[in-house]
């Protein structure tokens, strides 16, 4: 049987992971919204940005 303290820890961990997932997805959507020139300014290509965005789905 799961003790209340273990349940609380598990829920906190799940919440933290979900928050991290949401933040990473937000950052990757922002990256995709940059123009090609802006991407080049930070040393990335459109293909790099698209690959990073596709990795978002591996987090699920």
Automatic annotation (TrEMBL):
Q: Boundaries of each YjiS-like domain copy?
A: 17-50
InterPro entries the record matches: YjiS-like (IPR009506)
Return the Pfam families for the record: YjiS-like (PF06568)
Name the domain of life this protein comes from: Bacteria
Give the protein's recorded name: YjiS-like domain-containing protein
Q: Give the species.
A: Thalassospira profundimaris
The top of its lineage is:
Bacteria, Pseudomonadati, Pseudomonadota, Alphaproteobacteria, Rhodospirillales
